[in-house]
């Protein structure tokens, strides 16, 4: 049984930082991509970033480039999303996702975590 468990969300002031974690279990090696999507109130769910577990290649949506960094610890089956210089518009529920390869289309992903709330506010 596949499980993706997110942690690390919370309330932070603008300009602050948070690190999200996604602990994956039950994934076969075919599922090489782990990513993050987010959904703000009243908005569509959008892709934020993705990493190839085997190669470490990372992808980011333009709005977070230079501020967010994904990394992985394959020994722990965990990926991380370091979020710096956070803005109020980053406020959303962040979901960890997994599939065979990285995609910006939410319909492509077979597995989703429950989500973790990130709120950026003064």
How is this structure best described in words?
This protein has 122 residues and is an all-beta fold. It is 0% helix and 49% strand. The chain has strands at 3-7, 10-12, 18-25, 33-39, 46-52, 58-60, 68-73, 78-83, 92-99, 111-112, 116-120. The strands form two sheets. Strands 2, 4, 5, 6, 9, 10 and 11 form a seven-stranded mixed sheet that branches. Strands 1-3-8-7 form a four-stranded antiparallel sheet, with no helix packed on it. The protein starts with a strand and ends with a strand.
Which stretches are poorly predicted, pLDDT < 50 over at least 5 residues? none
Beta-strand proportion: over 45%
Summed up, the helix count is 0
Elements, N to C (H/E): EEEEEEEEEEE
Say how many strands there are.
Answer: 11
- Overall radius of gyration: 13 Å
The whole-number mean of residue pLDDT values reads: 96
Helix content: under 10%
Report the major sheet. Answer: 7 strands, mixed
Q: What overall geometry do the principal axes of the alpha carbons give?
A: globular
- N-to-C terminal Cα separation, in Å? 40 Å
């Amino acid at each position: 049984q596949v499980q993706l468990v997110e942690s690390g969300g919370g309330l932070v002031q603008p300009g602050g930082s948070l690190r999200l974690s996604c602990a994956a279990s039950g994934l076969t090696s075919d599922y090489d991509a782990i990513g993050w999507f987010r959904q703000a109130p009243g908005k569509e769910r959008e892709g934020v970033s993705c990493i190839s577990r085997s190669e470490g290649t990372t992808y980011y949506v333009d709005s977070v480039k230079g501020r967010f960094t994904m990394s992985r610890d394959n020994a722990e089956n965990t990926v991380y999303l370091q979020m710096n210089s956070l803005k109020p518009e980053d406020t959303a529920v962040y979901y960890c996702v997994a599939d065979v390869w990285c995609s910006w289309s939410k319909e492509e992903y077979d597995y989703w975590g429950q989500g973790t709330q990130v709120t950026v506010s003064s």
